[in-house]
Design a protein that fits this description.
It is a single chain. By secondary structure, this protein is an alpha/beta fold. It is built from 5 helices and 5 strands. It is 38% helix and 16% strand. The radius of gyration is 15 Å and the shape is globular. The protein has one domain: Rossmann fold. The C terminus is likely disordered. The protein has a 5-stranded parallel β-sheet.
Length: 148
């Protein structure tokens, strides 16, 4: 087992790799330690073992929900592990909607963060949602701005 600790494990479909990396980079800029397979896996690693270690070492699993992730093999495995840990209250499961797709049944009971109507990672709304995600990972309720 790894001695690493992560604030978040980002679970995503590889068709969303660019989006997931931009998202993870923004979380890192906010001071969070993020497990992203692209950053943590190296040649020779046993993929399933390393993913299990990353999942176990994370306080939360951020599940990127899109057509690229729902129903995909590795993502399903990560989601099942995250649901089991969330039910046992060992880990938070935070769905992040990144595409037009129905939430998987066990994720529907969770408050999610909706990125579906955000044009790009550089957009202001994207930054606000990343800040909301940061607060969720930090176990604080997000501050809401008063309507203008």
């Amino acid at each position: 087992m790894t001695a690493e600790h992560y604030d978040a494990f980002v679970s995503y479909g590889h068709g969303d790799a660019e989006w997931a990396q931009a998202f993870a980079e923004n979380l890192q800029r906010l001071g969070l330690r993020v497990f992203l397979d692209k950053w943590e896996l190296v040649a020779g690693d046993l993929i399933a073992v390393r993913l299990q270690q990353g999942l176990a070492a994370a306080d939360a699993v951020v599940f990127v929900v899109s057509a690229e992730s729902v129903g995909r093999g590795w993502v399903d495995e990560e989601l099942v592990a995250a649901i089991a840990a969330a039910v046992a209250r060992r880990q938070r499961l935070i769905p992040v909607l990144a595409g037009e797709v129905a939430l998987p049944p066990f994720a529907t009971s969770r408050l999610y963060i909706d990125f579906r109507n955000v044009d790009s990672p550089a957009a202001y709304r994207y930054q606000a949602l990343v800040a909301e995600q940061h607060q969720s990972l930090s176990h604080r309720a997000p501050r809401r701005r008063a309507p203008a």
